[in-house]
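Sample pair:
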Amino acid sequence: MIQFNTMVSSTIKSILIFVVLCISTINFSQNLTEQQLNHILETSTEPELVRLNTELIINKNYYHASIVADKLLTFNQESPNYNYRKGFSIFTNATFFNEAIPYFEIAITDVNKNYDMLSHKELSAPIDALYYMGRSHHLSGKMDQAIEYYQQFLALIGKKNVLVQQTELYITQCHEAKKIMKTPVDYEVINVGSTINTDKPEYSPVVSLDGSALYFTSRRLHSDSANINIKEPGTNLHLEDVYVSYKDKNNQWTVPKIMDFCKPEYNEATVAVSTDERRIYVYKDETGNGDIYYSNFESSEFQELKFLEDKGVNTKAWETHITVSPDGQRKYFASDREGGYGGRDIYMIEKSADGNWSEPVNLGPTINTPHDEDAPFIAVDNKTMYFAHNGPKSMGGFDIFTTHIQENGEWSEPLNLGYPLNSTSDEIYYTTTVDGLTGYLTSYRDGGYGDKDIYEVRNKHLGVDNIAVLLGEIETKDKSPLPEHIAFTVKCLDCDDPYEFTLFPRISDGTFFASLYPCQEYEVTFHKNNGEEEISQEIIKTNCDLKYEEIYRRMVLDVPGLTVMKPEELIPSYKPLAMKHFFGYNKNKLDPEKGALKIFMDSLNAQIKDGRTSIEIEINSSASTVPTKTFGHNRVLAEQRAQGVKHFLVQYFKEKDISDSIELKINNISISGPAYSGDYQNIEKYAPFQYVELSIGGINVQDTDIQLLESKDGSPKIEKNKVLHLKDQQGDTFTQGEFKEGEYQYQVIVGIFERIHYAEGMVKSTTQKGFDAKIIGKRNGMHVVSAGSTNTHEEAVALLKRIRNEVISSAWILNIKN
């Protein structure tokens, strides 16, 4: 599916066709092994090597041609002929056009119209060395030098030469590039990095609409080395394979995995992926011309590739690419079939009401030209198309253009997306995420990893309008694989032409996506067993005022019944705990084996067992105003009490092996109570101010029953959802469930997500509706999104009603200590 030097290849064929007629017998095969080639290089004469190099070039075996050219240069390092052969082999074998320039610089010192490619006595280079010198500078972004060499080339060749028209086009592109580069567009072009890219070619990226999966083609060695001995003779590269990388929960690309259907001995290249990623479209050259195949995900894996039977798509011509509109109603593909406008054109087929596909329709002269149009991609609005074009409005080869369907049904005039998204090299295979603000393309640029690389392109101006999208994730509570038969149906309840469609979550990670229209009401139903059993149903109203809206959902299924868990059930609730121990004069010891402290510790252990982590215990201590001779000063006594209990707790938690999850904090040390008046024997007066207090803040889901505990020493059972006050025999107190006004905030929660970018998306969409949304932290490994907070329960209830009406009906209240 390599499309980058197709014009060059056809040009070479035209130039060298006469050479084929001159060669009656050449005894060298193009499929040489390294050992065979080395033997030939050691034993052949210079004339034989010239003939071998010629044959290799004609057969497009540029890798071996380059090696033979190295040998020829040992006979004459300054030969323009041999330097041309070397430069040409480099230029056509890979994207390393910069490396070809030093050889072309020597080649153009002596060019000859009557160049004899078969003679070892030929010292000159052909005049097309000037053409390739210009092309190398053009691709390198040196337009003035490129124009100079192009013009020198045109001055030497006849007007009927097959390269005249192409050279004039390249000159036009150089001027266009200079104009475009004077007004750069605000793009951020980022190499996706070494997790995806290697020193081998990576290209044809297809990003999932939610941006969490990237399908692409690579010519790398398999991880199991299964293709180590299988290489393409002309390039010495492994054959094409399709890989996929997923973003982890921290939004980083993971190590790519090869797709199940790839075979080492065949070329398979990425083309497109269905919205639910249950079908992958692939380019495969099995018939000799190149056609579109597909693979469906079934029985926990992608199946063998099948020939695409859609009416009129695959023909005896060259079909290179296909894409499916997100609504599934149209397919756009590229083909060089007869009857087009020239080169490869883009065609469309449309699904009828009975589910059949129409005959292909050429998109017409607004889109298609005498040049090549390829790699179409349809955005989530089903009307914006990105495609690659290599005509006079390009900067040098293929550039990415955009167009959209207008109200009259016609396509708008294509617009070059500009620099630096496009460059003077080839840019092709552009796909975008759902909002249009992040795209991926293939390009060769300085600072890459060695060959064609995949780049991420960020922008602020290509966002889609008049569309709403539903994005979400669904998983099982026990993290077991999601059943393949889980699906969801979206039904528009108030559209002028009511419609519905069914999609599946991505089986690898449970993410799902659907495009919706603004200002409409939809019924979204999750079901199993081909719709026979309903799992959940929700009514979603899309916003009428926003040009673009993202709606986020997360669903967790309890197994084995696959019932939906309430979101608040995913975050455990824990009551606040507090105990206060009172001391006699100068006494500061605690007994952990009885009374209030024991209940406190039992309660804490129960919460830890129930999954609570990151616990902060605050320690407050007090001494009365009664003078102390033992400690010298009452504050010292209070400090000793605080430090004593902290030391005790440190040892206790170490023995329980839970010290890593608990933080001990001395919060307040005080001297309190009435002023001392010489009546130290008045215990009732001063004893209430000689204490140490321990407290742990609570995390409380409102209106949710929480199973609490019963102390092992026979203390009364603590009732559910009630504040409990206990007092032991020595007067120490224990309190559970008291949320003190002013110490806690009521957070209205709109979602909890494992993926950070989903949580960030929920914040953005909720903020757009006028709420003070933010991520308030992680609970149980999930990012918790709040739409706002209040200091009183009454205010929280009022806010909750608004949020349930305007954002999500499953919102709930979480009480968290300040």
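Confidence is low (pLDDT under 50) at residues 2-29, 703-720.
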